[in-house]
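re: that chain from earlier
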Amino acid sequence: MQDIDIADLKKISEFIYQKYNYDFRNYAMSSFKRRVLRIMELKKLSVDAMLKKLVDTPAFINEFLDELTVNVTEMFRDPSFWRVMREEIIPAILLNHKQFKIWHAGCSSGEEVLSMAIMLKEMGILHDVTLIATDLDTNILEKAKQGVYPIKNMELNEKNYIRFQGTGSFKDYYKEENGMAVFNKELLMNVSFRKHDLVLGDVFNKFDLI
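^ sequence. v structure.
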């Protein structure tokens, strides 16, 4: 098993910042080390070879970032949060705005965005809300746009939805095709997916909820 020292990790993070303007310099070092080692193992690279590849092959930075960024999520994760969102936060926004904007920052593969869309649809206000969903990882954004997930994930998602006390049937929001759950495209009609770096990206709009 390969290892990597702190000096090399700092060298990698500093190089990525100077060359590509992605800032991992204050990332938790233990997490950064674990993920860098995983990339080295996956790509069969030594520290020097990986640095050389980052320098010589600009396209490699996208593969590197895809492995480095974490994309773990589920629908209606923490159901009590979603109940508060439906019963307190959204009604408070509606007191002042009939139409409003929501930013899903670091949207990952889109499960949170779809959860929001389902909740807004059940509240009867989906078409009054603009949702902007951003992430640093372009590959994961493409997955989010599709709204297609392994059917095996739906059992947990449905349990969360039931605990959230959704007013419909969770299964009505998707159809099963070849072992995948394909969500109703209407849910994503008002969603704009964009690449955005939360650390260094510019403020690009005003939002009522982030």
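The first strand starts at residue 100 and ends at 105.
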